[in-house]
Amino acid sequence: MTKRNNIKLETVNIYAETGDFVFCTYCGKKMLLPRGADKCPECKKVGHLSWIDGEPEEVNSVEQLSGRYKLNDTDAELEDYLSHEVLVDEYPEHHVDTDDLVEGEILVRICPVNKYPTLVEYKGEERCLCLHNDSQEEDRKVVDNWIATQTIPKFDKDNPELFTAWQAGKAEMHIATLSYFRVSDKQSLGGCDNVFYEKRQAMRSLVDYFVNENMEKLKDVYYVCEVRLFAPTFEERMTYPDTQSIFDLSDYSMVKPYYSHQVNSI
Ligand SMILES: [Zn+2]
Ligand SMILES: [Zn+2]
Asked: In which domain of life is the source organism classified (predicted)?
């Protein structure tokens, strides 16, 4: 009895001309994947790729596999074979200002991959791990909930007495600053500052900015978002006749921000 080779041969999905010849311990599929892949494009599981017994690592090209396996050319996007964590590293320009962060701290960041606000955990060494849910809507809800836990609102933002209350030391002043810069030469292109009397509202204003369409309009730009607690002495507070004078003098810009993140537009 003769066997036809194309029936006997095992199928290997080909995702790259050369790369890693691996199999998935979860779904059992054998694949030639682009080098560095850490996610199975077949079953989408991360961390299950393994070298194949009896196949040295030097076997890494279509040329070496042809004739021994049935080769099946397959298309895939980056997110099909790279985990989210690795994908984030594909955007090296998305640095987080991590000077004030403690390992394990939770913060809001614009995910470099999907460009939406998301909760991240600071893992140390300038690395943040996205804590994504199943959808961007869920991510947004979690961000909202997190911001809501940051402080309990003491004052109504529209209360005209708030500036006076701040002068008297009965309210906190949080100044949210959004500045934008050209990527190529880091030249400042402008920005805006807003006064809030509650931390939660200041932080939300910066997150909300990126949920609308502004990101698409400004190319070659990166944004720096900062919130400062402006708390000069009571005597100094009395030298500001109104909110506008705070912006005119801009003494607050000398205060170190307690919250900061950068967003890049691509
Ligand atoms: Zn798999
Ligand atoms: Zn992410």
From this structure: Bacteria
Distance of CA 25 from the midpoint of ligand 2 (Å): 25
- The answer to whether residue 157 sits within a structural domain is no
Residue 217 pLDDT greater than 70, yes or no? no
Which phi-psi region, left, alpha or beta, contains residue 47 (left: φ > 0; alpha: ψ -120 to 50)? left
Instruction: Please list the residues that pair with 22 across neighbouring strands.
Output: 31, 51
Q: What is the DSSP secondary-structure string of 167-205?
A: HTTSS--EEEEEEEEETTT--EEEEEEEEESSHHHHHHH
Q: How far is the CA of 129 from the centre of ligand 1 (A)?
A: 23
Considering every ligand atom shown, identify the ligand nearest to the alpha carbon of residue 45 and give its number. Answer: 1
How many Å lie between the centroid of ligand 1 and the Cα of residue 34? 15
Q: How many helices (H) and strands (E) are present in the chain, helices listed first? A: 10, 12
Which ligand places an atom closest to the C-alpha of 27? 1
User: Minimum-distance ligand to the CA of 33?
Assistant: 1
**Does the pLDDT of residue 140 top 70, yes or no?**
yes
- For 75, the domain range is 10-82
162 to 156, 166, 196: CA distances (angstroms) = 8, 6, 9
Q: Does residue 186 fall inside a structural domain?
A: yes
Instruction: Quote the ligand 2 centre to 114 CA distance (angstroms).
Output: 6
The answer on 175 and 94 residing in a single domain is: no
Q: ipTM value of the model? A: 0.88
